[in-house]
Amino acid sequence: MRAVPDPRRGRETRHDHAEVLVCLVIGFLAGKTTIRRSLKWCKKHLEELRNYIPLKNGIASPSTACRILWGTDEELFAMAFMEWIGEIVSTRGIHLAIDGKALRAAMEKVRNFRTPMILNAIDAATGLVLAQLPLRDKDSEIRAIPELLKLLDIRGSIVTTDAIGTRTEIMERIISQEGHFVLMVKKNQPQSYEEIMKYLGEMSEDHKEMKKDVNYKPRNPQMQKKYEEVYHQERNRDRHEHRWCGVCTEGGILTKTQEEWPFIKTVGRVRQIRIPVERDQEGKDITPDVETFLEKGSRRSPKPVRDDTMGKDIQETGLISDMELTAEEMARIKREHWAIENRAHHVLDDTFREDRSPAKRSKNNLALIRKFAYNILRIAMLAEACSGIMTEAMDEFSEEPGLIKKYVFEGISSFY
Predict the structure, then answer these.
(1) Domain ranges within the chain, ordered by starting residue
(2) pLDDT tens, 147-159?
(3) Cβ distance 171 to 181 under 8 Å?
(4) Is residue 282 packed enough to be buried (19+ CB in 10 Å), middle (13-18) or exposed (0-12)?
């Protein structure tokens, strides 16, 4: 926190700005998800905290903390965050998931009521947040992704984004930094999307026929030799999920690879069908199989309509990569990308109440305070016998002073 200059220049100050920022992080670690509640918790534990930091004038007021957050340089604070987590987790050779996140409660306080966004970079394996970059709105995410990548050492890493990041300039940026990518192709790239659905759809059909009849002749024998497919089924909460992933290690099936994307080596298609679980009066599972569901739907869900967007019963997504990948590898990478939603964004919204925070001027710096606390909790959950549930881990930090001493004041050694 000392790396960030005190914004209250030329004024007599009673509270050290770095100490105030540390107290806010500690409060969030203890599960107090507002500035006022965080500082109130620290005030109750003042004597204990004085074992580690002076706090000669006690705990700052919420208004003082807000002024510090308002005035702190957002770029310098973000760089300090990246330097801190960079000493713990390397960004080389990992799966780096990038996605934008809305700050919805701040929408009514910004001009034109456009929801402010934050672009986050996550280590998919651990769920740790490695960087953030503020966005004015969703439209600026395309321009911000290359800027975020410039700040990271991605040598040997696999970068994944949603379909909004499937742009030539982003692919070239990743390759120029010696990284790799697996990017989604949806209807924002209409030509490539249609080609993937057509050609890999035909290959999938021929693949099934060839398994039934060894004498069956596929439509494109040469391409079929480079095609493979995997299928996974699992129970996920209150639904059955069926996923097929087919890949062809011949990028030339796409028109764009002949001009804009000559570096594409693998093209894939993921098809996912979600079927809500149904039970009879005796509690037995009577969920329909895939064929019945596609034909008739179910009591909980009408006959599904094909769509490539998330949240539908059927999802069909194209994938492209500069690496030669098996179907198993591409399916795993695509699924792991959504760690950014399930392990980070959902937790920040639900547990840290980020989506409900009405902060305007301090929204981006307050988001970093949450991420300091989130990362510390995540590391504690991964490194020792701390609860695997974030809210319970917060309770442990609140009740066990030794955890705050260990992870905040003694420092965290390299995680890898």
Answers:
(1) 17-75+359-409, 190-343
(2) 999 999 999 999 9
(3) yes
(4) exposed
